[in-house]
Structures are given as structure tokens and as C-alpha cells.
Amino acid sequence: MPGDKCIVVNKIKKSYKNINAIRQNFSCEIYSGVNTVLIGKNGAGKTTLMNLITGNIFLDQGEITINGICCSKPESRRGLRYLPDNMQVPEKCTAADLFIEFQRYSSEFSMADFRATAEEFDCLHLIDHPFSKKSKGQKRLLMLSIVLSGSPSVVILDEPMEGLDPMNVRKVRRRITGLCREGCTVLHSSHRIHEAERHAERYLIIHDGEFRGEGVMADLELYRRIPEERVKHLGMNQVRKVSSIDDYCLVKAESSESISSWNMKNISSPATLEDVYIASLENL
Questions:
Q1: From CA 127, how far away is CA 149, in angstroms rounded?
Q2: Distance, CA of 275 to CA of 26 (rounded, Å)
Q3: What's residue 265's pLDDT?
Q4: Within a 10 A sphere around the Cβ of 5, how many other Cβ atoms?
Q5: Cβ atoms 107, 75 nearer than 8 A
Q6: Is the pTM of this model over 0.85?
Q7: Are the C-beta atoms of residues 114 and 71 closer than 8 Å to each other?
Q8: Closest alpha carbon to 195 in 87, 86, 271, 272
Q9: At 177, is the secondary structure helix, strand, or coil?
Q10: Tell me, what DSSP letter sits at residue 265?
Q11: Strand, coil or helix: what is 32?
């Protein structure tokens, strides 16, 4: 990792009246077969970016391609599944009804695939019940059963774990991991930064419509929280100060070998994705 590029966002912009939802020259890349999390505050532009990728709204400028095909072309969405955050469903509609509607636009998966995933999520017994009689978590789980069934090539999920209890989060996480192992590309947004750190492989940071950073979760081990007064003893040729957080500095080593050469005992603690995210906002 990184490997082949699945989704390429190249110098795009999107505005609504006088609001820059995605600012000029926004660019990023989503890699094939990788679970990538998009993190940012409410209103940062996460949902707008997902709607642009899926072709639900149009770009003002720039280009987005999916597997080399412009996202404005219907063939770019072959094998793509998208689940919005607040998907509106008619009260009398059942999950089985909704699946049939999905199948009209994406015929590469079957009712048997859907039922198998619903059984995996322990909600098969709910698929013929109206959505109006289900809790928020049950509705979300049923929708995820549809979107994650079969063998999609690209899955885009807006806050997929919202409303789910820990056991169901684990089931969905296991399913997503399995799809990625089969080569599926997953992009999801999340407010649960600690959960995303354990589950996703890569992260993208967006803030006020601007791209603020990206990385691989495995590289978080290069970041350390160190008391401000101790940083000078580490040798700045081996470490780069990223940001100050409370009484600590967030520093990044050149390599894991650099960390092992420091006398780190009792003076540092591992940094988290949340630390890196906050640092990206402080360095505006």
C-alpha cells in the first residue's frame, strides 16, 4: 500500500450559491481494495464529496474518475454501491422491497446474496417488515445488508455505523474487511475516530472543503506525544514537530528505527488518529 488507484479526485470544486462546499483544487486518491475512512467535522464536505464521486451532484470544475472512467458516465458506477447517512424510505417499504429497487440499478447481486448478508447480520427475520416499525439501528443494519451483499467493486458509506450497537458494529466491520480482501474498494465517513483507527487502513482528512491530510493507519506508530520540554533532547534530525497539544508536542519520526534509537521510556505515549486529526486543524 499504496497500490492501484480506484478513485481519483483531481482539482475539483463545488459551490452552493455563496458557500464553497468543496474548495478549488481539492484532490485526493482512493486505492483499490483498501478500506479508507474520511474524517472531518460536521459540514466539512464529507457528504458533498461522496455525492460528487457517486454522480448524485455535478462538479463545478475538475474531474473525478472511478477505475479510469469519468464519474459523470453511468458505466463508472457499475459495481458501485452507495449508502447515504439519512436515506429516506417510504413508511410501508420493507427491506425486501428496497432491495428490489436497488437491483433495478445494480443487477450484479441477487436476493440470495442479500438474504445471506442479512442472516450474517442477524436481521434476516426483519426483511419483510415495514421500515416504519423498526428502530434506527435496525433500519441501518437492513440497509447495510443490501449494500454489502454480493461482490461489489466499490462501496461508499456515509456514517455507516451510526445507530448500531457494538456487536452489530463488529459484524459490519467483519463484512467490510472480507470485501476488501476480495478486492472491493471501500470509502466511508465516520465521526467515531477511535473506531475508524482500529478498522480502516487509510485515512483522509477534510476540513471546510479543503484536503488537510492523508495517511496509512500503520504509520501512526511514527507519531508520539512528548512533553514539550523533552523534545529538544531527542535530536531534531530524527524527529519533526507536528503540533502542540496541551502541554505535549506531537512529533513524527522519520522511521520506526528512529524511534527505537530514542530513549523513549517514561517520556512519550503513542499518538492516535485523533491527535493527527486535531494537529491538521491547528496547522491551518
A1: 14
A2: 23
A3: 47
A4: 15
A5: no
A6: yes
A7: no
A8: 272
A9: helix
A10: T
A11: coil
